[in-house]
Structure formats: structure tokens, C-alpha cells
Amino acid sequence: MLLSRVAERVYWQARYLERAENMARLLQVFSALQLDLPKGIKLGWKSLIQITGHNSYFYSKYKQENERNVVRFLLSERNGVSLVDMLVLARENARTTREIMPTEAFELINGLYHFARDHVEKGLHRAERNDILEQIVSRAQQIGGLLAGSMSRDEAYSFVRLGRSLERADMTTRIIDVDARKLMPQLEVEGAEPEAREPYDNTLWMNVLRSSSAYQMYRQHVRERVNGADVAKFLLQNEQFPRSAAHNLTTLTKVLGNLPNSGKVTWQVNRTRRLVRNADLQGLMQQGLLEHLDLVQQEIGKVHYKVADTWFLPSK
Amino acid sequence: MRVNWKTYNPRPFFDEIISSPGYARKPAKKLASYLRLLTHEELLQKKTAAELAIKTMGISFTVYSDAGNIDREWPMDIIPRLIAGSEWDQTSKGLRQRLAALNCFIDDIYNQQKILKDKIVPAELILNSGNFRKQCLGMKPKHKVWAHICGTDLIKGENGQFFVLEDNLRVPSGVSYMVENRRVTKRTFPELFADNYSIRPVAGYPAELLDMLVSLSPRSVKHPEVVVLTPGVFNSAYFEHSYLAQRMGAELVEGGDLLVEDEKVYMRTIAGLSQVDVIYRRIDDLFLDPLAFRKDSVLGVPGLFTAWKKGNVALANAPGAGVADDKIIYTYVPKIIKYYLDEDPILPNVPSYLCVDKLERQYVLENLDKLVVKPANESGGNGMLIGPQASKHELAEFRQRIKADPRNYMAQPLISLSTVPILGDRVVEPRHVDLRPFVLQGEKSYVTPGGLTRVAMVKGSYVVNSSQGGGSKDTWVVEDV
Q1: B428 and B386: one domain?
Q2: Residues in contact with B60: Cβ distance below 8 Å, sequence separation at least 6, in sequence order
């Protein structure tokens, strides 16, 4: 039977790895997005900091939220929250659970960490950034593939899925939280009419989808032109798409079925799931989306506390 | 960079690959000519490939320093060391014999103490030893075995014969590097395997270890719960603890994962408590159980010692086994073998002088600059004096230490360790090596084919410890042709 301490480390290893991958995706999309903007309009890199929830930490270090500062802060700086530090933590947790993971898993995670450590500085330059981020995402995907293809469906694997799904659900709700007005403040300042903003809104939502590799899947599923309400609905409520919040919450309920004493956690997951599923997104797009997403994020946070309460070693 | 054996001169030392410039010893002939034919690019490529393999495989060890603990990549030289199969068979017999006798000795010490009553070994040496645990008196572990895992350090001197330098019966480490070094050389020199040499495989060690540990289980259940107890990730051998647990499919536990209830040991799992049968502990005796030994230990498990003494859990190695790996007791091992097994030792000891003996102490003090002096129970080369390389000040200091505590010191002539070529930055050069084979004893016994070869990477140095800049080599026991 899986040790509580090991369960905790496996869970965090999966979360940090997923978080690093999501960070790479976000940086990729923001970097691409700014190339689509007309001359004179600057991307609000600030909202990237807001998505990750590190506002005050960022402003304690930097005055300006320009591209260089934000990318440095989220990608390469050794500050405990950057992509490279997520990989340090993923690797450290993997290193201390090597005995239960497939041998190659640590080798891949270790390889990814070394790759990132050696290359993130270059990622500060626009020209090289995309290549490096692409590699990071692809290597992270490879690790998921390796685990899926070589790990027994035992408790340890359940904790990998638990960590990954929870992190994914959380990040997806954060990604939707970007708002065109915050991303392109100039448009607002110049008093542009909604019609003038529309092409950029469109670009924005397409990029939001791309950050979750969801554009193609969305297209197959929704046959209208890309619009905010549909995108939010797809990313939050679509059960089939593997990065959507609903899909990941459903995955959690399945995983929990394989674990002992999972009652309280399942209860909290179902509560969160109902909240996500029953939301009227058309209405929320007009008013209250932000508050709704905040609430969902809080409920997801509570799932984590129930998980820790139930299975991890009591903290001393 | 090319390998040129004609300019490789090991003299005055015994080199295990090259007997004199340009001439390879018989088992090494194919290896020597293979290396000679590699181009500069091929050599460089192989060296880099090996370094990369070590990095991605995450083979590491921890160095403690002022700058914090750093996880370093394991230093390995790619040229393997060769030992002929027939030579190894004999050595292996000697190692089993030695461990069997040492286990009889430990069991006797904690029970009848016949060897003390017969005055073969002086009683005061044992009872005053820092590794004697009076708490263990009267204990009868399964199979009468106390030291289940032994790392015996062997060296070769001028005539190329193996000597035993010391027995490590507490928590010997290095075996994972032995297995991993082989994995690296297979990637580096696939051409040499099978086609050119029959090399005895070493990858079976974790399975042998698990079988041995299972044979210690007090409960007769089909799959006893075997765990590896580690002090944690900051321990220098953590890589190995994790490695062995993984390869055995055993749980890797820390003190906080275990607890004792009703004199039985349990681990905390996600489904509640689960009973543990066998603990391969990689924590020193004194830290095992704050109730029995050091009260300030945070690594151990309160009540563990009593659970063991009641026979509800097996500990490998047993607490107290270290009484036989004291460097003073070492000098008595030939007599111990004779006493318990009525056999002559197959593997010789390095001649030694005991400072507790008046005449021998006299000799040691007069010849300090020619001798190696070792304290009774330090490890990793700590607290040692290498006379011929010591300053006057160091010699004087050791003279005082010996006089103050003669029981704690023994001395040996400086053996000119054999050499093996390493691939330096530009040329091949001889470096001194030792060998640590691992011996298992439970219901049955087992010896690794070869072991971990440690290399003093600095020219002329005899210090092979990885914590002090030593490196390692893959060791091939090759079938004679």
C-alpha cells in the first residue's frame, strides 16, 4: 500500500509538472498574440501576472509589467514561481519518489529540468522563445505519455492523475479569466466602439483556445465563429475535451473511486463539478464571470485541502 | 587524444591492465587493442556519451559543503577494470568464508561469548568497543545472522594478490553505483560485450538482496512487507536507498512513516497502518530508536528496538553488528575464521599493528612516517594518517593521540595499491584503485561478481572516497578463455 508521504510527493510532482507545462503554453500564446496586434497597440502583459496570481510578488520586484520583466519573472528567474522553478520542484519530488515510478520517468523529468535550466535564458529573446517553449510542452507531454503507457493503474498512478487533473482544472479557469479590455487597454482608452474591438477579441479568444491546444477541437465542436461565451463554455463545461474544467473534475471522481477513504474528497469534487456544470455562461459573460471563476477556483482549492487531510502525513 | 600503451608506464606499481609499456596482461589484451584503435573523435564521443548518460540517468551523490548540499553527478572513468573469472571464484569463496565467520563471532559475542572465555580475542577489546551494544545481549536473530550485507574493501599490492583492507558491516554503500556503472559501459562500449568478452552480469543484485531480506521475515506470509529505511533525501547515499527500493519493489520509508504499536512495526499508508516485516535500514545503530539509543534522534522510530528484540520485525543489518567491523577487531579476523570454521583464511589481511599492545605500539610510534594509522571506528577515510605523506606537525599530533588512546588505533604498512588506466584529458594514465564487493548472507549467501572499483583520480593519490574526489570504474569479471 502506498505510503502517505510518497502519495503526497507523487501528487505534487504531477501538479508542478502540469503547472510548468501550462506556464509554457501561456507564454507561447502571449508571445504569439502580440504579433497579431496592430502597430501602436501593446499587449497588456500584466494580465499574465494576474492569471498566475502573483501580482504583489511581481510588483515587489519590478516596477514595469513589460514583456521583458514578465517573461523573466515567469520563465527564468529563480524566484520559486517561475517555470524553471516549477521544474526544480517537480524534479525534486520525482527524485524522492524514484522507487515507485518507472525508471524512465525520472530520466525524462530530469532531462526536461536540465533542458529548461540550460535554455530558459535564451527564451527571453523573442526569436528563440517559441522553440524552447514548444520543446518544454512536448517533453512534458512525453512524460505524461510514458506514465500512461508504463505505470500500473495503482494508487501511485491515481495520485499522479489527481495532481494533474486538479492543476489542469484550476489553470483552465484562470486562462478564461483574461479579458480583452485588460489585454489591450489602449483600445478602451481610445474609446473604441465594440465593433472596432471585435477582430481583436476574436484573435484573443482563438489564442486562449490555442493555449490549451483546444482550437481544433473547439472548431470541430462549435461551428460558429469564435466568441467569448462559447469559448468559456467549451473550456469550462465540455466533458469530452481533456483540458476542460468539467472533464478534469469528472476524471477526479473516477480516480477517487480507486482510492481508499475518498468520501470527503469526492463530496467536495462533486460540489465543484455542479458549480461548473450548472453555470449559465451566456448570462455570466454579461455580468459576474469573474466572480464565478473566483468561486470555482476557491472550490478547487478546497478539493486540495480535503486530499491533504485524507491521505497525506499530518504536518508537524 | 589517442590511447598509446607504449608511453603508458605504471612502474613501480602493479598495473592490472598493462604489465609494462606496450604489453597488456592476458585477460585485458582485447580491451587494450580495442582502445588503441579508437580515433580521437571516437574516444571523445564515448567519454561525452558516458557523461551524458550519467546526467540523464540521474546517477548522483550528495556532497556536503559550506555552500550547502549539492547533488553531484557520479564520477566514473569509462575504461573498465578487468578481473579473471578464475581469480574471482577464489576471492568470492574467501569473502563468503569471512562473512560466515564474522557472523558466528557476532552471534557468540551477544550470546555465550565463548571466544572471549577461550581468550582468543581479549574481552576488554569488545566490551570497550564503541560499536558494542549491550542492549543486544541475548538476541538470537534468524539464521544466526547479524551482518546480512557486507561491503568488504579489497586491495591489490605489488604482487597483484587481493588483501582485505576492511569489512564494512554497518551500512555499507556503493552497490547501486556498481550496477549503474555497468549500465553506462553497456551504452558506451556495446562492441566489447558478448562479441569480445563474456562478462558476468551484475544487475541481479537487487533481486538477490530482496530474496535475502525476505528470508529474514519473522511472519511466514507469502509476501512479507520489506522496506528500506533512509535518513532522507539529504543523506549522501539517498540515491542508493531510493535505487535499491525501486529495484526491489520495496517501500522507501523515513522514520516518520513508521510507528510501533504493541511491539509491532507499522507504516502509515493512504489506507491506514500496514505491518512491516523486514527493514533494510540505512540509518546508523545509534539513530534507530530514540528510546534505546540516542534520545535526540529524529531519524529513528520510537520502540523499534524492542519490536526487533521481541522478534516481531527483522533489521538488516542487525543492531550491534558493527562490533565486528571495528578496525581493531579486524586484526583478529584470521583467528576468528580458524576458531569458528576451523579453516585457514582464503583471503589474507593486510599485516597490522595494534597500538594497544605495548611492543607493537612501540614499533608504530618509531615508524610512524612509514605507516598508515587508522582509528577503530571511523569511516570514509576520516581521522586517518598516511605517514609517508604527512607533515611533521601531523606526525607529532598523531603520536600524542595514539599515546592518549591506544585502544582506538591500529597501523598498517602503506600498501602500494595497484593501478588501472584512466582516460585523462589527453592521455591514458595509471591511477590507484581499490575494490568493494558486496556479500549477502541470510538463509543463503551471495557475492557480487566484481564490485565497485573506486579510483583515486588525482595522480599518485591513494584516497578513493567519492566524498574526497574519488571516482569509480565499471568492474568486469570476465570468463577465462
Answers
A1: no
A2: B71, B72, B73, B74, B239
Widest CA span in chain A: 62
Q: How many domains does chain A have?
A: 1
B263, B296, B312 - which closes a domain: B312
Q: Given phi > 0 = left and psi -120 to 50 = alpha, else beta, which region is B131? A: alpha
Asked whether residue A314 is assigned to any structural domain, the reply reads no
Judge if B439 and B404 occupy the same domain.
no
A contact residues 101-120, partner B, Cβ 8 Å cutoff: 103, 106-107, 110-111, 114
CB distance from A150 to chain B under 8 Å?
A: no
CA–CA min distance A82, chain B (Å): 21
**Coil/strand/helix, residue A305:** helix
Domain membership flag for residue B105: no
Buried b (16+ CB within 10 A) or exposed e, A76-95: bbeeebbbbbbbbbbbbbbb
pLDDT, tens digit, 9 for 90 and up, residues A62-108: 999 889 999 999 999 999 999 999 999 999 999 888 888 888 899 99
Residue A202 resides in a domain: yes
C-alpha cell at B176: 547501486
Residue of A66, A300, A47 whose CA lies nearest to A166: A300
- The 10 Å CB-count burial string (b at 16+, else e) for B119-128 is eebeeebbee
* B390 residue type, one letter: A
What are the mean pLDDT values of chain A's consecutive 10-residue runs (316 residues total)?
A: 93 97 90 78 81 90 92 93 95 89 91 94 91 95 94 94 96 77 54 62 79 84 81 92 96 96 96 95 84 92 96 77
Q: What is the pTM of this model?
A: 0.83
**B437: exposed, middle or buried (C-beta count within 10 Å: 0-12, 13-18, 19+)?**
buried
Nearest CA in chain B to A5: B257
Q: Is residue B274 part of a domain?
A: yes
The β-bridge relationship of strands B278-281 and B314-316 is parallel
Q: Do A96 and B55 touch (CB under 8 A)?
A: no
CB < 8 Å from B in window 251-290 of A: 259-261
Q: For cell 530508536, what's the residue?
A: B289
**Domain match, B41 and B79 both:** yes
Smallest CA–CA distance, residue B252 to chain A, in Å, is 7
Print the domain residue range for B461.
5-86+180-191+421-478
Cα–Cα dist B263/B281, whole Å: 18
How close is the nearest chain A Cα to the Cα of B223, in Å?
Answer: 13
Q: Is B465 contained in some domain?
A: yes
Paired residues of B251 in beta bridges: B227
Q: Are residues B391 and B287 in the same domain?
A: no
B223 neighbourhood in chain A, CB within 8 Å: none
